[in-house]
Write a structure and sequence with these properties.
It is a single chain. With 407 residues, this protein is an alpha+beta fold. Among the domains are: 178-246, no CATH class; 256-398, L,D-transpeptidase catalytic domain-like (Beta Barrel), CATH 2.40.440. 21% of the residues lie in helices and 18% in strands. It has a 5-stranded mixed sheet, covered by helices on one side. Strands 13, 14, 15, 16 and 17 form a 5-stranded mixed sheet that branches. A hairpin with a 4-residue loop joins strand 9 and strand 10 (272-277). The protein is elongated, with a radius of gyration of 24 Å.
């Protein structure tokens, strides 16, 4: 009997190569979610990036599956959340018949089992076979993130039997399905904590509740990994979840920002701020950018030109009272602001939600602003400075915030 369950480290490393993703362009405090969004990940996306699986062998002959120009829609029958449909570029391949290894003679139901000819996510298999949705395949096949070439895949979910070996499978009714999806969110949260360790951002609570903080962190991971940026849930069985779990490190996002000696990259989609030097990321901090009508403007390597430590008021610039009742720049409540575009600045604030709520500036938590200022070497400033060379940092601002569709 051939096993479907290979070492996950090998799976992840292989998938990272096979997926061929195309993309355009330390504290121990636990960060809790600000609102209890639905725990279940969103339905799988309706298109995939660079289809990694083009043929699947079945029984003693080869079943050839042409790679579609447009992937067929996939739905999770009992999924409790819905992600907006997105269109993703996919390489179209002309498929020819290949010789694949036959299935083992003792496969329980050959009509419900295929052998993967190449490394692939379950989303890729679902799209290639058009027999089931990725979440159902994920449940049916032991909740693995991907398979390697040669693995056997049960493509008849919901029939109560493991079609590879004939063992009975539990009924994934609504409650069991929800429990599995919640456990998967916990896996994602733990993986995100692993990837973001050492970058100065608080750990997520590993509680299975995919709220706005988890969405913010998933978006930041997508940005680093070159995936389409969104704060929506990441569906089990999807290409992007397989890529997430295949990653051992957090790459620096691809951006013109890294052409500077020291840089800040503010992403409005994720409400996240990457800070680094050259090709290396040093910090990743949650931010809150400008609200509607007061948007933080696009920037491409804009130089920071002014820093005000506000030493005469405990670091708070222009506050008429300290602290003011409403935390926004219109009241002058900017903690140690660093200006990069006229009146817009990166500054500390007492309130940094995971949504755009400032009046144009990019907020950081007070502790994070102190860390940032210290990294710039400005913590010893004795007064306001306008010397760009002393600040020596540029700012990029990109993205568009789209509220979560999960509920």
């Amino acid at each position: 009997m051939e096993s479907r369950n290979r070492p996950t480290r090998r799976r992840h490393a292989a998938l990272a190569l096979a997926a061929s993703v195309t993309f355009a362009a330390c504290t121990s405090t636990v960060a809790t979610e600000t609102s209890p969004d639905q725990a279940a990940p969103a339905d799988p996306p309706t298109s995939i990036v660079e289809q990694p699986l083009t043929t699947i062998a079945a029984t003693s002959s080869t079943m050839t599956v042409p790679t579609p120009e447009t992937a067929p829609p996939s739905t999770a029958a009992e999924a409790t959340t819905t992600a907006p449909t997105t269109t993703t570029a996919m390489t179209t391949t002309t498929t020819t018949t290949t010789t694949g290894a036959p299935l083992p003679a003792d496969v329980f139901d050959p009509d419900c089992v295929v052998r993967a000819d190449s490394d692939a996510s379950l989303e890729a298999i679902a799209t290639a076979t058009a027999l089931a949705d990725p979440v159902s395949l994920w449940l049916e096949n032991g909740q693995v993130d991907s398979v390697v070439g040669g693995d056997l895949v049960d493509v008849c979910p919901g029939n109560g039997v493991n079609d590879v070996n004939g063992d009975p499978l539990p009924d994934f009714g609504k409650d069991a399905r929800q429990a599995a999806l919640t456990a998967n969110v916990e896996r994602q949260q733990a993986k995100l904590n692993e990837l973001f360790t050492g970058f100065g951002i608080d750990d997520l609570a590993v509680d299975g509740v995919s709220g706005p903080r988890t969405g913010q962190r998933l978006c930041a991971a997508r940005l680093s990994l070159g995936l389409e940026t969104t704060i929506e849930d990441m569906a089990p069985g999807s290409n992007e979840q397989a890529i997430l779990f295949a990653s051992d490190t957090l790459p620096t996002p691809t951006s013109t920002a890294t052409e500077s000696e020291r840089w800040v990259l503010i992403d409005r989609t994720c409400q996240i701020m990457f800070i680094g030097a050259g090709a290396d990321t040093t910090f990743v901090f949650p931010t809150s950018t400008g609200s509607e009508g007061f948007e933080t403007r696009d920037q491409d390597r804009s130089e920071a030109f002014r820093f005000n430590p506000a030493l005469d008021n405990g670091g708070w610039h222009d506050s008429s009272e300290f602290p003011v009742g409403v935390d926004n720049p219109l009241n002058g409540n900017l903690y140690k602001p660093l200006y990069f575009d006229l009146g817009q600045a990166i500054h500390g604030a007492n309130n940094v939600p995971p949504t755009p709520q400032s009046k144009g500036c990019a907020r950081l938590r007070v502790a994070d602003q102190n860390t940032f200022v210290g990294w710039l070497g400005l913590d010893s400033a004795t007064g306001e400075t306008w010397r760009k060379s002393e600040m020596n940092v540029t700012v990029n601002v990109q993205g568009e915030f789209i509220p979560r569709q999960s509920s």
